[in-house]
Amino acid sequence: MRVAVISDIHGNDVAFAAALADIEAAQVDQIVCLGDAIQGGPQPAQVVARLRAAGIPTVMGNADDWLLTGADSGAEQIEPERRRRMDDVRDWALTQLAPADREFIAAFQPTITLDLGAGQQLLCFHGSPTSYDDVLLPSTPDAEAEALLGNSAAQLFTGGHTHLQQIRRLGARRFFNPGSIGFAYSHQQDEAGFRADPWAEYAILTADGAHFGLEFRRVPFDVDALVAAYRDGGRPHADAAIEQYRGASS
Question: Which fold has domain 2-243?
């Protein structure tokens, strides 16, 4: 069985379309999305339409729950000016979504379990199996990471949230993060010079009985088309978002 694991599209349908074309060429059996699919970028309704058309089961991420509810979990301290900009983008995004779109997002699940055959399961979530706000990084101590995974009988775990492709062994279990479809970036950079990457990241898990293989993939997308979507779509604070891709477009 081949499973394409995607995450963190963040309203970037240009990148999503490029990734799905690559996934189709890879001939997978299943696609699963780990959440934060809609909020942030210039194309929230287009991403909803593509997810729905492709029939992709999707986990609820923190950003999409906040998009629907406006409720702040308090997991991250956000400066007032950044909060104001986030609220502007949220208000705009809600105007782009039809009632049926909002119902579709509200149906995202806290976790998804995929049967890989031969008694193997893949547990899919956003931050951790119990909270979309939990952060699991390569630097997270093993004991803390194992505690975040909980007592599930699954041997394979996948989560998003950090926009960072990674794989690690935790006892007899394996955890991986497929990276971000719509907003990949290097964690080794200063905020003042922040730059987003001009590609979509995802992973393909191949399961054959007790044998497993994992492939991390990086798919370039048309940055000029994304810039046009920001400029033409009316998304607030578009110039600041476009600046994150400076030098990536022609």
Answer: Purple Acid Phosphatase; chain A, domain 2 (3.60.21)
